[in-house]
Design a protein that fits this description.
With about 80 residues, the chain is an alpha+beta fold. It has helices at about 30-35, 40, 60-65; strands at about 5-10, 10-15, 20-25, 45, 50-55, 60. The chain has a single domain, classed as 2-Layer Sandwich (NE0471 N-terminal domain-like), CATH 3.30.2020.40. Helix content is about 20%, strand content about 35%. Strand 2 and strand 3 (about 20-25) form a beta hairpin.
Length: about 80
Amino acid sequence: MEVSKITFDNNNIYVEMKDGKKGCHPLKWFPRLDNATKEQLGNYQLSPFGIHWPELDEDLSFDGFLNHTGPKKEAKKV
């Protein structure tokens, strides 16, 4: 998978792939990214499989990002 662009606004991360696939998720789903500065968010490295933020020690796989539906919720104990 190849990235066309990665952008951020105050609340979201957007990833667009060269094949046209797009994904957008709230930064609050990724606490390290949510608490990062704009400079830290912009300091990422791309690999064939995902995005790595060395300063934040955070990794997102493209497959997981494009197929992610939200944070897992803990099951209620009865």
